[in-house]
Amino acid sequence: MATLVVRPTPGLRGVVRLPGSKSYTHRALLGGLLAGESTLRGPLVCDDTRRSLDAIRALGARARARGDRLHIRGTGGRLRTPRAPLRFGESGTSLRLFLPAASLCRGEVVLDGEGSLRRRPNGYLVECLRRLGVRVHGRGADHRVPLRVQGRGVFPGGHLRLAGDIYSSQFLSALLVAAPLGDSETVLEIPGDMVSRPYVDITLDVLRRHGVRVARRGYRRFTIPPRQHYGDPGDLSIPGDLSSASFLLAAASLVDSRVVLRGARRDPQGDWAMADHLRRMGARVSHSGDALEVRGPFSLRGIEVNARDTPDLVPVLAMLGLFTEGPMEIGGAAHLRLKESDRISAPAQEFARLGAHATSRRDGLRVEKGPRPGSVVRVDSHGDHRIAMALAVAGLRLGPLAIRGAECIAKSYPGFVGDMRRLGARMAWVGYRPTGNLPK
Hints:
Layout: E1 3-7, E2 11-17, H1 22-34, E3 37-41, H2 47-58, E4 62-66, E5 69-73, E6 86-87, H3 92-101, E7 106-112, H4 123-131, E8 135-139, E9 144-152, E10 158-161, H5 168-178, E11 186-189, H6 197-209, E12 215-217, E13 221-224, E14 234-237, H7 242-254, E15 256-262, H8 273-281, E16 285-288, E17 291-294, E18 304-306, H9 314-320, E19 328-331, H10 345-353, E20 357-360, E21 365-368, E22 377-380, H11 385-398, E23 401-404, H12 416-423, E24 426-430
Parallel strand pairs: 2-15, 3-14, 6-7, 10-11, 18-19, 22-23
Antiparallel strand pairs: 1-23, 1-24, 3-5, 4-5, 7-9, 8-9, 11-13, 12-13, 15-17, 16-17, 19-21, 20-21
Helix pairs in contact: 1-2, 1-3, 1-6, 3-5, 5-6, 7-11, 9-11
């Protein structure tokens, strides 16, 4: 297990090209599988997206990397039934996105995972698919992986009511991707409030680029006509990842800085909200063209945030409570207890080690600055990439900090430490050498 050591850093200067959006990359890979020919420009290369890339290849797509482009020759919706299990590591997004698509194969498809993904329940997802006529079962009463799908070569379609919490946006996205290839109309209803709604908008944006039709009524009802065809989008440019950008924006707000982030063009990503939150806290964040710029530091004030639609921002926003005048109050995030870690209790535990008054609640946490540690502090990532990066940013002011298990950062942003070091951050790995090349 690797350790990331972070030392106090006086300032940050420079320009960073943001990595591609993880959410867009997952969905574009799946769209490429179901289409004919497509080219992804600037896809994210990380542990999670590698799992999705492996899956589309196993299901019959041919993918070839050339520079920062990934050319995909898809299946036109006629998927190959893989002989070996589809292995998704700890990528819950990959598992849920590919689960309905597995019904497009003929015969049994096994979907498996490891680590935290083996502990996460899938009972509700299995129940929903069964109501649509998909034959699927998992391990134990709550259907943990491996999941087994008996595909019939076509998605059944039908009418389904989905709960609006927990995994609804990812699973709704997965159904929206598979349903156009159904043999009957699919109607998806969400009677309550949905969490993480911007991720559904990302899915619909990718479907639109493939020429797929979906009629919607807000986030309450989606109607998908059957027997559609995934058109070829040509070059599909992946926007910069605003979830990853949030850590760089936070860092630049805490120390003397002049930092520019390139690749940030307006799109449906909900984590654009990070710039707005920082402005409410007293920071100045400017946006022009594809560039976000911050010239810190700022005297930040604590605010209240409802994280219902932006759960990935919770660890970094909570971390800022270590430095604000007044507490950071974060709510609307009960669904975070079932991520790679418990993203409510775990950050509160680690920020308390850094001197904060941190309290976890049912759907969020409260963080208020307290006495600073006087020596090297050892903290734990809990195997969660977003907690690890939040701790690394805190270390710029509170270091020396030793973050155990920080190699999990590769799950979403393998270049994070390299980018931070190029800006001037004093960070170093112990026992780890990251890689970020696109698989050939």
